[in-house]
Amino acid sequence: MEKAVITVVGQDAVGITARVCTLLADTNINILDISQTIVGGYFNMVTVVDITNATSDYNEISAKFDALGNEMGLKIRVQHTRIFDAMHRI
Question: Which of 8, 22, 28, 71 is the most buried (most CB within 10 A)?
Fold first, then answer.
């Protein structure tokens, strides 16, 4: 299984979760775990996803989420879990 972590941070607004999840569904990315909170009016979401069967490659996925973040005034970051796995092996 190929996994990634997607983080979303920005001012809270209606529809953030819906728009992010719609893009995930449109690119055939499955949510494995999701957590979201609102702290002081700021929306924070961390999602672990399975990108094994995604219809786009990693760079295209990252670019699509960058574009969505720019459109919505959010910072959306996609990171492959290999980064985190490597950090814990050192």
Answer: 8
For residues 6 and 10, what is the distance between their CA atoms, to the nearest angstrom? 14
| pLDDT for 11 beyond 90 | yes
Percent of the chain with pLDDT over 90: 89
> Are the C-beta atoms of residues 14 and 77 closer than 8 Å to each other?
no
- Tally of domains within the chain: 1
Say which CATH number the domain at 59 has.
Answer: 3.30.70.260
Residue 80 phi, psi dihedral angles, 5° rounding: -70, 140
CA nearest neighbour of 23 among 39, 42, 4: 4
DSSP the chain: --EEEEEEEEE--TTHHHHHHHHHHHTT-EEEEEEEEEETTEEEEEEEEE-TT-SS-HHHHHHHHHHHHHHHT-EEEEEEHHHHHHHHH-
